[in-house]
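Before going further, learn to read the protein records used in this course. A complete example follows; check for yourself that the lines match position by position.
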Amino acid sequence: MARKNRTSRLGQVRAAYTMTRQSDPKIGLILAGVVLASLVVFAAVGLLIHQLLFMIFLGLLSGVTAATYVFGRRAEGAAYRQIEGQPGAAAAVLDTLRKGWTVTPAVAVTRQQDVVHRAVGRAGVVLIGEGTSTSRVAQLLASERKKTSRVVPDIPVHEVVAGNGSGEVPLRRLTRHVMKLPGTLAKADVAEVERRLKAVGSMSMPMPKGPIPKGAKMPRMPRGMR
């Protein structure tokens, strides 16, 4: 089992590196530079204190740790760049929300590929809109908010627009923004809200066709790289 887990983790790292290199061709040189810089600094200190081998060992450990952190951040950035601007990008990002949240993609859709996704958690109901027109997305969010409020009155309903414009939340900050919303509901209330909304259904068209394949998800970094 342990060997299988290690193989799976190595496969995740390999896939993440391949994906990152597509949009960040110098990633290999950057990581090597981080490790080398750490070795040089620690080796210099080792010469001064006459502990060269020990400090080289510490430098290698520090360099690998720093390179892992740098790789994780650049891989995350590459993943966001890969899906940014594509229909359903926000849904792929929301899929990384932690336990306690239930995400339903495309609860409302227009023919122009403006979409509203729904997340339910202790903060209540969060409606996340994305699309090519700010005004259309705002109208779609307002319409979905009315529908939601009729089904679950007295439950907080938050509206978020995913994007890079004024007042919008960039994809890389979307999950953090949602998770920072104040929690006001008990777990039992969250389950009841989700049950009622599921009973009503999405009341919308299917997810628009686009570059993101069905079931697309943000790549998950192996533990220690997040």
Summary: The first helix runs from residue 2 to 23. Residues 89-200 form one domain.
